[in-house]
């Protein structure tokens, strides 16, 4: 297999309609308070994974949770998956602090995410 590898799924974002209610449920589930707690996003870092709650996510095209594969080079991985038959949904964009995210769909329309952390 050629191309760049991934670092695995480390981030899963969940669309929510009621951020406060969802925050309570996920806090109970994960047994820890969120590390990021803003009106536009709540994020938990537990057991090596990041679980994010996105208010209004359904309106942004998130019909279901989206798993984000962490990669060292998001543009190279997007080129690789689209050449293999994936379809670009949302191109890479900076979501703060140099962290890049993008989404694509597989041949069945499942949405998959890619995430590139800032270069150290």
UniProtKB/TrEMBL annotation:
Gene3D superfamilies: 2,3-Dihydroxybiphenyl 1,2-Dioxygenase, domain 1 (3.10.180.10)
VOC domain residues: 8-117
Matches recorded under Pfam families: Glyoxalase
Taxonomy, superkingdom: Bacteria
The protein, known as: Glyoxalase
Source organism (scientific name): Streptomyces kronopolitis
């Amino acid at each position: 297999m050629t191309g760049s590898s991934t670092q695995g799924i480390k981030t899963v974002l969940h669309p929510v309609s009621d951020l406060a209610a969802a925050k309570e449920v996920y806090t109970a589930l994960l047994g820890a308070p969120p590390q990021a707690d803003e009106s536009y996003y709540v994020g938990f870092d537990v057991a090596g994974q990041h679980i994010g709650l996105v208010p209004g996510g359904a309106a942004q095209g998130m019909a279901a949770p989206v798993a984000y594969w962490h990669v060292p080079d998001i543009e190279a991985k997007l080129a690789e998956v689209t050449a293999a038959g994936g379809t670009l949904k949302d191109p890479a964009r900076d979501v703060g602090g140099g962290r890049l995210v993008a989404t694509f769909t597989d041949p069945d329309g499942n949405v998959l995410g890619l995430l590139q952390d800032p270069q150290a």
